[in-house]
Structure formats: C-alpha cells, structure tokens
Design brief:
Blueprint (H helix, E strand, L loop, with lengths): L1 E2 L6 H9 L4 E3 L1 H6 L7 H6 L5 E2 L11 H24 L10 H7 L2 H6 L17 E4 L12 H8 L5 E6 L2 E5 L2 E2 L4 H19 L1
Parallel strand pairs: 1-2, 2-3
Antiparallel strand pairs: 4-5, 5-6, 6-7
Helix pairs in contact: 4-5, 5-7
Length: about 200
C-alpha cells in the first residue's frame, strides 16, 4: 500500500500498479499542505482506482464523505482545465460520476485494506455495515439521485444511524456506548497547538 505517492514518476507508478499495489490519496491535506495534486487522475488513466484517506485529522475533516467530495471536485477541475486547453470549450459532461467517488471510500477502501471479501459493500457473506442517512433533512432536498445526494449534499449531521458488523454504533443521531466528554477534555491542549500550526 502507498499513501500519497506524489514523488512517484510514471514508470514507478506503472510498475506498482502492475504489481497490484493499492494507493490511498488524502486529497484535502495534500492540496492544503503543498504536496501537490492527488494521484487520482494518474491512477484512473492507468485503469486503477484510488482509495481515500485523511491525513492530519486533528486539523482537517475526518469524515469520508467530505473526502470523496473534495477528491472528486479536484479531479473534475483538473480534467475540465485540460479539456478546455485542448478544445477551447467546456466539456459536455463531468469526467467522473459521483458513484465512482463513493466507491473510492467504500469498495476501494476495503480493497486497499485487503478486506474486500468482508467489508466495503453489502453482499451475502460480508459483515453487516450500514450507514443510514436522513434524506428528509432540508439540506438533502431535493433528492434527484441518491448517490449524488450522498456525495454532494450529505454532512455528518445527516447520518442518523451506523451499524458495524451487525451492531448499532450510532442510532437516531446518538453514539452508543461511548462517553465523549472525558475524551474531548484530554484532547483540547494538543488540538490547540496543532491547529495553530496549520490554520
């Protein structure tokens, strides 16, 4: 597995892809911290899909839906600029569908971890992992396409319930079996230092 991978030249990237290596892009931190563009487009050009991750969760969003939206927006922008340079006009459609971006944080994440037979999608024989989103919330309206609504409109506030391996971990907007207050108090000093360095 390779995380980031910006320094890889085309020959190295081709070789690693041929060997079946998985790649994880952390688009938000890579763009913010000066690493350069995520490998998303280069991998897609080779017929491979990235998974997505989070670097510096202490100062950046840790939710994977945001990461999918950011990575998708960055790569669409790069693709659109290249198209306009070549054709001197706007492309007629988006280069990457929302469904593909959702797969980057589900199926491809499971593949990167070597657990595609257990997690990453709902299928017979896999463990029951569910995320239930309130489609009735105001910011989710109107729902034209459920996948697009998840990628482009959903925030953590819309997630009603979460099941992991058949056990509810969040239900009706509330975490289950977790005492947050003591954990948060212990993290504040470190968060203030880290946030000052990266704000």
């Amino acid at each position: 597995m390779t995380v980031h991978g910006h320094a890889l030249n085309d020959t190295q990237l081709n070789t690693f892809c041929d060997l079946g290596m998985s790649f994880s892009a952390a688009a938000e931190s890579e763009m913010s911290q000066g690493h350069g563009h995520p490998l998303t487009g280069r991998l897609r050009a080779l017929g491979h899909a990235p998974s997505l991750g989070v670097d510096l969760e202490s100062v950046m969003s840790g939710d994977m839906i945001s990461q999918a939206r950011i990575a998708l927006g960055i790569q669409r922008s790069l693709d659109n600029v290249a198209y306009r340079v070549e054709h001197n006009t706007l492309p007629s459609t988006s280069t990457i569908p929302a469904r593909e971006a959702l797969q980057w944080v589900t199926v491809e994440g499971a593949r990167m971890l070597g657990q595609l037979d257990r997690i990453g999608s709902l299928a017979a024989g896999k463990q029951a992992d569910l995320v239930m989103i309130r489609a009735s919330d105001l910011n989710m309206q109107p729902v034209h396409d459920p996948v697009s609504s998840v990628v482009f409109q959903t925030s953590l506030a819309n997630i009603d319930s979460v099941m992991v391996a058949g056990q509810w971990k969040k239900r009706h907007g509330q975490l289950l079996g977790v005492e947050l207050a003591p954990k948060l108090v212990g993290r504040r000093p470190g968060g203030q230092l880290t946030g000052r360095d990266h704000a």
